[in-house]
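Input set for joint prediction.
Command: fold jointly, output tokens.
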Amino acid sequence: MGLAAVPDPVFSAGMVGPGTAIDPLRGPGQAVAPIAGKIMKLHPHAYVIVGDDGRGVLVHLGIDTVQLKGEGFRLLAAEGDRVGAGQPVVAWDPAAIEAGGRSPVCPIVALDALSGALTGFAEGAVHVGDELFRWE
Amino acid sequence: MGERKVTVAAEVGLHARPAATFVQRAKLAPMDITVTKSHGGDSVNGKSILAIMALDVRQGETVVISADGEGSEEILDELAAIASTP
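tokens >
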């Protein structure tokens, strides 16, 4: 859906970095690693995977979900783990997040990328394994 | 070398909005900006959101922000204000 539509100016204005966002299916599901690499930081509501080239991608599960202090999230991997692209990292239920009055939209951000460095943004429905964008 | 010792006040620590705001300001500085936890550890690049997130500064932790060169005092004051904003 693009970062601009994320209901949080920190993400929609690109302050964290360029990227896109996923409006997840409502219902129990698994958030996966967007790239292969090491889980540099793992919070229940957000994680950063760093690839072998040193570039990091942030996945944020819902907006203002830090306030939930982990409730409703189950870790499927550990900080420091090596993961493959598409490997499950956190189990959660976007419907429950929404029922709690928060947006379940997930920003996917290329950390420290220049704004013009991303191309080929996916549009419409995406599935695990689909390309979201290319980071040149 | 100019320095500011600051206790991070935001509930989320130096993550999310505080981190993004900090890095955005640091990037405008002409000189290098480094951030170090006051009890030791690596100095990281204050212009990298990845590095700041990796530093993982929690609420109540103290960091030392360093910069050198013309205008660094003003920049350090601004960065210290961002980091200490609740």
